[in-house]
Specification:
Blueprint lengths: L1 E3 H21 L4 H21 L9 H5 L1 H13 L7 H20 L4 E3 L2
Antiparallel strand pairs: 1-2
Length: 114
């Protein structure tokens, strides 16, 4: 399997677009889309960063909230009672975007898994 940084960036962009759309239109279910894509971006960044033995970077915020982020995968898609605050999404988006940029800056581009 091939995992590129562009696949991760796509999740970050989708989350940002959902957050921006919520800010504009206040449709609460769009926050679920943001939560799902942020969870996917975080999961992929963890898998991706672990594939490089030379340096593993995990932001403290992601580490401290890993169980919450994990719950967003299914909760945001299947739980009709799923609720998330927009400020939580914005904070998570900011942390994940900064994390992505940091990894990209030090040369992370592509990983292969067999």
């Amino acid at each position: 399997m091939n995992l590129t940084m562009s696949l991760i960036k796509a999740d970050i962009i989708a989350a940002k677009q959902a957050v921006d759309y919520y800010d504009k239109c206040k449709i609460k279910d769009i926050k679920n889309i943001a939560a799902y894509h942020l969870q996917q971006a975080a999961e992929k960044l963890i898998i991706y960063a672990q594939s490089f033995c030379f340096k593993f970077i995990l932001p403290e915020y992601i580490d401290a909230n890993s169980l919450v982020l994990t719950s967003w995968e299914a909760g945001s898609r299947y739980d009709i009672n799923f609720k998330i605050r927009i400020d939580t999404l914005k904070k998570t988006l900011n942390v994940i975007d900064e994390w992505y940029n940091e990894l990209y800056k030090i040369g992370y581009r592509e990983a292969y898994f067999f």
